[in-house]
Each structure stands twice: as C-alpha cells, then as structure tokens.
Design a protein that fits this description.
CATH topology of the largest domain: Aminopeptidase
Radius of gyration: 24 Å
Strand order of the largest sheet: 7-8-10-9-13-17-14-15
Number of domains: 2
Distance between the termini: 37 Å
C-alpha cells in the first residue's frame, strides 16, 4: 500500500472515497465544513435531520455529492471533542479504513486533521493503516483489501513515514499471532526474528536446547519437554543511545501453542492458544519499530519460545524444577507454564544489568476476569517505573490498570512445602497477582513492571476498528516508552 501526503484539498481529490471527521458536540470544521459549503449545506441538513450524529465510529457515506471530485464522502463520527485523544483517533480512523477495505479500492483519502497535535495525527494514521488489514491470512477471498493508495492530509512525509513504521510493526505482531501453530513454533519464530533483525540492524542471538541446558534454564526446558518442537530463547540488542547508557529490557512470553500440558485445556479453551506467544510478538514488533525509527535509546529484547504439549516426557504435577537463578519450583499446574518460561528469561535479562525491565505476557485468565478483554493489568516492584509505563500507554490510548502487590498478603500464597515456591497460588483468588508475585522472584532489585495482556492480545470478536484475532495492542505503548526513555 502506497501512503503519501494528500497534495490537493478535500474538494479536488478525485479518490474513490474521502473521509472527513465530525464531532458529536461541535460544528463541522476543516474538511467537513468545506464539504458542507461545496454541497450547499448537505452536511448541515444530514445533522439537522439526525441521519448522522457524529457518535464514535459512526459512518455515513454520501454518494457522488456535487461539488466534490471524489466518488463518495465518508462522514466519520469522532465523538465528543473533549474526550477525543490519541486512542480515539486510532480507533476512529481504523473504523473508517476497516469499513472501506471491505472491497478493493484504488485510492482513499483521509482529511481528518483539524488542528490536531502531531501525536494524535500519528495515532490516527496508524489506525487507518492497521484497519485495512484482517486476520484472513489463508482465505482465497479475503475480507479486507488494503487500498492501493492511501492519501493523508496531515503532517509532512517524515511524520507519515514514522506512522507507517509503527503501524507496520503493529501489523507484524498481529500477523505473528494470527499465524497457525504449525507455521509459528519456537524455531520458526526465532528464524523470523533473525530475518527481521538483519533488515533492521539489530544484533540477534538464539539459544537452542543445548545452549539452554548449558545455561541451566531448567524451567523453560521443563515446559518444552512434552513437545517435538524444542524451545528457543531469543535475544535482540539495539544500541541507538550513547555507549554505556542504561538499557531498557523488554521481555515477551512466547508460548507458541499451549495445550495446557497434562493439566489439559478443553477444546474450546485450546482453540485460540496460538495467541499465547503474543507477548513475544509484541516485543519483537516493538523493537523492530524502535530500530527503524532510530530512537536514541538502548534496548534489549528477550523472548522465551516454547510449546506446552503432552508428549511422553511432559512435565508432571509435583515435579520440582530448578530455574536458572537457582530457585526451586514445585509444579502444581502444568497450565501455569508461562511464568515458568519467563522465570528463566527474566534471569537472563537481569544478568545483563538493564536499568529497567518490562515484560508482556498472556499470563492469566484471572486478569481477564478482573479487567475485561481490552485492559492490561500492570503489576510492579517499583511504583515510579510502573507510572512511566502507564503514562506511555495512556499517551497512545492503550488502556492499562494497576493491580496491587502487597507482600504481606500475596507472598505467602506462592510458598511451597517442598520447594522454594510453587507455580500457582492457593486457590483461585488473586490469580493474576500471584502469577506476578511468582515473576517477582526472578527480577532481583531492578525496577520491573509486568503487563498481563491476556485479554487485549487476542479478540474473539471484531471491533469497529479491527477484525477479530491478534490485536497488536501495546506495540505502540512500548514505542512510546522508548521515546520517553531517560534511563
């Protein structure tokens, strides 16, 4: 898809469609006002007759209006002006793009920017690009058709290029999650990362099962024992900052398929478990974007890649594992495998001495119960660092909410009678938090924030701005975190 700056005004652009935005509580301005004047008040009459109200994601096509060169004008509802932010910009533009991409179109132009900030304009263009793409990777007749040419009335070409880089990284995360598990497994994910690293100037290292054994990664090896596809550990290194500048470490859970192991999931619960590597996909996509944008930061990316299967050597309930940092873990549930994988990967990251850690994982259904399907849970050992992660998320309009980590309440819940810790808490309560308390055992004193993205990473149903499947959510958060980075 070609993406370029609109060289003509909204009335003169002879595209298949032009998209103009209308707030629900403010007079039409900018391109919408120009369309209204050129059509003799058509937009005003539509609003007066309540055929269109400017509600969020509301769309109304005006076919071949006189005075406009485009074949149709799409009115896009932006909601209330006071509530309009980067998140609403992303979703609104995505809703228009997704609707228009329902059939092939040569050229679509977006005239949305009515004095917006650069951040909001970038988010809107990201949403428009992402909204054109679906999850139907293997259909003969696809449901979404990216435009041949997308014209954007907003920032200059350099701003458009930055937005495109971020949007393409979001789409990379979505694609990796949407690929079937016979295509994306530990070794194939690692090879894909090697290719991406080569194109982006990243250092890349992959540990195979022999290296994992030599590095004493007993937890990740135990999870992988039940699969014919052996585990991998992926390390990426980007150095855009000053030599010696403290690094940001991003860690992703990469369970490429999760059957639950011997604690077997139901068929319904297993169907979407190709998405259990969304944390690793988000990390890889974000580091790609950071490198392509040439941000002046140092970033290390890590992913533990493994399949959790039921083969004859699969780990069993009651097994005691020794993680890389020496902690012993009693296995009470083989379906609580993600935290075992992350235990070793966090230990590797900590050894490199980063300034801060952030991990992303589709870790617990408990977090979905607590926060729903669109909000990630944040848990931390350092409030100031958690606040910075939350600020980055809110700056791009990706929802997060912090959960407590009271040591006097939760630490006892993961203690084992036969090992240092166990891999689940006592009973069903506070499951997202006890999982985070488990991870906390492997980060030492380094400021760390855990993002449980189990709900937002994969959508069972479409949204107005996005098809179902992998969401790519929190790639933009991590890019913003790197932009704001000060060590």
């Amino acid at each position: 898809m070609q993406i370029s700056r609109a060289s003509s005004g909204v009335l003169e652009t002879a595209a298949d469609a032009v998209v103009v935005g209308v707030f629900s509580d403010a007079p039409a301005g900018g391109a919408a006002a120009a369309v209204d004047r050129a059509t003799g008040g058509l937009l005003s009459r539509v609003l007066e007759n309540q055929d269109f109200g400017g509600k969020p994601y509301e769309l109304l096509p005006l076919m071949s209006p006189l005075g406009v060169a485009a074949r149709q004008v799409i009115l896009l509802g932006l909601g209330e002006r006071a509530k309009f932010d980067a998140g609403m910009a992303f979703r609104s533009a995505g809703a228009a793009a997704r609707s228009l991409a329902g059939k092939p179109r040569k050229q679509v132009a977006f005239f949305l920017n009515d004095g917006w900030s650069a951040d909001i304009d970038e988010s809107a263009l990201c949403g428009a690009i992402v909204g054109c793409h679906g999850q139907d990777l293997y259909r003969d007749e696809t449901c979404r058709h990216p435009f041949e040419d997308l014209l954007w009335a907003g920032g200059g070409q350099s701003a458009i290029d930055r937005a495109r880089t971020i949007a393409e990284s979001v789409l990379l995360a979505r694609q990796l999650v949407n690929e079937p598990p016979d295509v994306i497994y530990p070794d194939s994910f690692a090879k894909r990362a090697v290719e991406i690293a080569a194109h982006c100037g990243l250092e890349c290292e992959v540990w195979d099962e022999n290296r994992l054994m030599a590095e004493r990664c007993g937890a990740i090896l135990a999870v992988g024992k039940g699969s014919s596809n052996p585990p991998r550990l992926l390390k990426l290194r980007y150095r855009g900052g000053m030599p010696g500048q403290p690094a940001l470490a991003i860690i992703g859970k990469g369970v490429t398929f999760d059957s639950g192991g011997l604690s077997l999931k139901t068929p319904e619960g297993m169907l979407s478990m190709k998405c259990d590597m969304a944390g690793a996909a988000t990390m890889l996509a974000a580091v790609r974007a950071i490198a392509r944008l040439k941000l002046p930061v140092n970033v290390d990316g890590y992913a533990g890649l493994v399949e959790n299967m039921t083969g004859p050597a699969a780990m069993k309930l009651g097994d005691v594992l020794r993680a890389r940092n020496g902690r012993t873990i009693e296995v009470h549930n083989t379906d609580a495998e993600g935290r075992l994988v992350l235990a070793d990967v966090l230990s590797v990251a900590v050894q490199e001495g980063p300034a801060k850690l952030v991990d992303l994982a589709t870790l617990t259904g408990a977090c979905v119960v607590a926060l729903g399907t669109e909000v990630a849970g944040l848990m931390t050992n350092d409030q100031a660092w958690c606040d910075r992660v939350a600020t980055a998320a809110r700056a791009v309009g990706e929802e997060v909410w912090q959960l407590p980590m009271y040591p006097e309440i939760y630490d006892e819940l993961i203690k084992s009678e036969v090992a240092d810790i166990k891999n689940v808490g006592d009973g069903r309560w506070g499951g997202a938090i006890t999982a985070a308390k488990f991870l906390e055992q492997f980060v030492g004193r380094i400021p760390w924030t855990h993002m449980d993205i189990a709900g937002p990473a994969f959508r069972d149903k479409p949204k107005p701005w996005s098809d179902a499947g992998g969401s790519g959510k929190y790639v933009r958060t991590l890019v913003q975190l790197a932009r704001d980075w000060q060590g």
